[in-house]
Amino acid sequence: MNADWRRSAAKFYGGAQTPLSPKDECSQKVIIATAFFGVFSISKCSTSAMAYFRITLIRSAIGLPAKSSNVLKALGLRKRMATVFHPVSPDVAGQLMKVKELIAVKEVDQPMTKAEVHMERKPDPGFYVESRAADRLKAANET
Fold it and tell me: What's a Pfam family this protein contains (predicted)?
């Protein structure tokens, strides 16, 4: 990551730019500043817990330039409402900015499995079973 990018990010958010030296590289974080997604910070070392982007394809890429659809393919998004998880990095943030109108992004602490995402999206059945008739009959016959 070059220094010009960090300077422009700090200038965009009015922060002071501090130079990174090799020995304190792990103690500082790099700020990814985007107007659409907000501010995400990335640690340059893997000692801390890793953050992930939760990316959901909201709008289809039909009729858009091939560049946009290729970015979605690279991210692993094929169908609408599909959700993928990618580690927070400047590379992924750049890809997200290319297709920001088509996706919804959240920053999460850990990725979810496909089954967990499915259960999260599964709607409420609309009713609750308080007791079953067979259970009531069995209880009445026992007494």
Answer: Ribosomal_L30
pLDDT at 66: 96
3-class DSSP state of 40: strand
Q: Is the dihedral of CA 36, 81, 115, 132 positive or negative?
A: positive
Any long-range contacts for 87-95 (C-beta under 8 Å, 24+ apart)? 87/50, 87/51, 87/52, 87/53, 88/32, 88/40, 88/42, 88/50, 88/51, 88/52, 88/53, 89/42, 90/1, 90/5, 90/30, 90/32, 90/42, 92/53, 93/32, 93/34, 93/37, 93/40, 93/53, 95/71
Please tell me the pTM assigned to this model. 0.57
In the 8-state DSSP scheme, what is residue 114? Answer: H
Q: What are phi and psi of 32, to 5 degrees?
A: -95, 110
Residues 49-62: tens digit of each pLDDT:
789 999 999 999 99
Tokens, residue 53: 């982007």
Instruction: Provide the number of structural domains found in the chain.
Output: 1
Tell me the residue range of the domain where 84 lies: 3-120
Measured CA to CA, the distance from residue 92 to residue 98 in angstroms comes to: 10
